[in-house]
Write a structure and sequence with these properties.
This protein is mainly alpha-helical. The protein has one domain: Rhopdopsin 7-helix transmembrane proteins, CATH 1.20.1070. It is built from ten helices and three strands. Strands 2-1-3 form a three-stranded mixed β-sheet. It is globular and about 65 Å long.
Length: about 325
C-alpha cells in the first residue's frame, strides 16, 4: 500500500506562514499602531539625515557620506521586514511563497551585513580623522569612500546569495509550514527543514563570524588606535571633541553587534525561538530608530544644519 510522504512530495508549491504575535484583537490593534509609528519614525528620521547631508555643503565630508549611506540602509532594511509584518498582525495568517521567503531572506541578510561592514568602515574613517588629521583629506578621498561602500555591499551580496541559495535547496516538510518569527530569518527557517542541517548551521556560523566577529575586531582595533591618539592630544577640549565624534558611532556598534551576535553566533542548543524573535525586534526597530537620534543629538554639525533648515523653511513660509 502506498503512503504519502510529506518530504518527498514537493509537487505542490511550498508556503510559509508567520506565527502571530497575539490572537487578542485589542492587542493586535495596539501592536499594529506601535509598529507603524516606529516604522514611520525610522523613515522620517533617516530620511531627514540623508536630506540634511545632501543639502548642506558643510556636511559633504567622508563621515557624513558614510552616515547618509547608513541611514539609507536602515530605511531599506526595515522596509524589507515591516510592511509584510504589519500585514500579518491582524486575523488569519497570510502565507508567503517559498520564492518570496527566499527573496526576503536575501535582502534582509544583504542589508544587515552591509550595515555591519559599513560600521567597520566608519571606525576606520574616525581613526584616520583623529590619528592622522593632516592627511585625512588625502587618504579619505571621494573615490576611496565610494569604493568602500561598494565593497561592503558587494561582499554582503556574495555572502547572502550563497547562504540563501544553500538554505533553499533543503526540503521542507508539508505544503505549509509555520515560522516562529515575523520574517524569513535564517535560524527559524532552518528549523523547518526535513534534512540534516549540520552543514548549513556550520555555514551560517562561518558567515556570522565573517559579518560580525571580524568587523567587530577591526572596530576594536581602530578604537584602540583612536584612544591612543586621543590621549596624545594636549588640551582637554581637544580630547573631549575627539571623543564626542566617536561616542555616537560606538553606541550604535555596541547595540547592533550585541543583538546580532546573540542570534547568529549563539549555539543553537542554547537558543530559544521566542528569545530570537524578541531580540530581532530590537535590531529591526530600535537600532534603526536610534541611529538618527544618536547621531543628531550628539552631533553639533547635524543639529546646526537641521536648525538652519527648519529656520529657513519657517522664514520662507512667512514671506
Amino acid at each position: 500500500m502506498l503512503t504519502w510522504n510529506p518530504v518527498l512530495n514537493q509537487s505542490d508549491p511550498i508556503e510559509f506562514v508567520f506565527r502571530m504575535f497575539t490572537a487578542v484583537p485589542e492587542f493586535q490593534v495596539l501592536l499594529f499602531l506601535l509598529f507603524l509609528l516606529l516604522y514611520l519614525m525610522i523613515l522620517c528620521g533617516n530620511t531627514a539625515i540623508i536630506w540634511v547631508v545632501r543639502m548642506h555643503s558643510a556636511l559633504h565630508t567622508p563621515m557624513y557620506f558614510f552616515l547618509s549611506n547608513l541611514s539609507f540602509l536602515e530605511i531599506c532594511y526595515t522596509s524589507v521586514v515591516v510592511p509584510l509584518m504589519l500585514s500579518n498582525i491582524f486575523g488569519a495568517q497570510k502565507p508567503i511563497p517559498l520564492a518570496g521567503c527566499g527573496a526576503q531572506m536575501f535582502f534582509f541578510v544583504t542589508l544587515g551585513s552591509t550595515d555591519c561592514f559599513l560600521l567597520a568602515v566608519m571606525a576606520y574613517d574616525r581613526y584616520v580623522a583623529i590619528g592622522h588629521p593632516l592627511r585625512y583629506t588625502l587618504v579619505m578621498t571621494q573615490k576611496l569612500c565610494a569604493q568602500m561602500v561598494a565593497g561592503a555591499l558587494g561582499l554582503a551580496v556574495c555572502l547572502s546569495l550563497q547562504l540563501t541559495a544553500l538554505i533553499f535547496t533543503l526540503p521542507f516538510c508539508g505544503h505549509r509550514r509555520e515560522i516562529n518569527h515575523f520574517l524569513c530569518d535564517v535560524p527559524p527557517v532552518l528549523r523547518l527543514a526535513c534534512a540534516d542541517i549540520r552543514v548549513h548551521q556550520a555555514v551560517l556560523y562561518v558567515v556570522g563570524v565573517l559579518v560580525l566577529t571580524i568587523p567587530f575586531l577591526l572596530i576594536c582595533g581602530s578604537y584602540v588606535l583612536i584612544a591612543s591618539a586621543i590621549l596624545r592630544i594636549r588640551s582637554a577640549e581637544g580630547r573631549r571633541r575627539a571623543f564626542s565624534t566617536c561616542s555616537s558611532h560606538l553606541a550604535v556598534v555596541l547595540l547592533q553587534y550585541g543583538c546580532c551576535s546573540l542570534v547568529y553566533l549563539r549555539p543553537q542548543s542554547s537558543s530559544s525561538e521566542d528569545e530570537d524573535r524578541q531580540i530581532a525586534l530590537v535590531y529591526t526597530f530600535v537600532t534603526p530608530l536610534l541611529n538618527p537620534l544618536i547621531y543628531t543629538l550628539r552631533n553639533k554639525d547635524v543639529k546646526g544644519a537641521l536648525k538652519m533648515a527648519i529656520v529657513g523653511k519657517a522664514t520662507s513660509g512667512t514671506i
